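Lecture 7 notes: from sequence to structure.

We start with a single chain of 160 residues. Read the sequence below before looking at the structure.
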Amino acid sequence: MRRFSTWMLVMFMVLFWILRVVITLMTELKMDLMGIVPMNKSIEIILLFVALLCIALVVKRKWIGSVIYLIAYVGYFGTDFFQNINILLNATETLEMGTYINIIFSFFGVLLPIFVLFDMILDKDKSNNPKDKKTDWFYTNEQYDRKMDERADKNNYRTL
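Now the structure, written as tokens:
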């Protein structure tokens, strides 16, 4: 994870996860947080644990983490987004602020995993142990090892 975009996406993933934890906790405690409610509390809790696992996998640059994150979030927030858009389009009276905020958070919940997957696709440093020019000359330089071995062999100290 050397790229700035990867760090920012992981930070957004963590912030969105914390926000969803707070929203789920507030709903469970029957408190209102700007009218934001999860579609299904039990699925939301499962999704929170899945997202936590996916965040760890994305940090380790594993493809499976971004794919699972995309499938889970688009499956959950995509349906919520389209349901709220249909409510918005078919509304005859004034809607609550919570509906608009749910649309925004659902849109962000769909957009974030897509960006994470694109970042994973476009990243050229996918490996866990990328080349580091500052230290690899020492560890991969066989001539330096041979030179040190030859010098060490000449140091024969006599013992009495």
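The helical segments are 4-28, 41-59, 63-89, 97-122, 136-139, 142-153. Keep this in mind for problem set 3.
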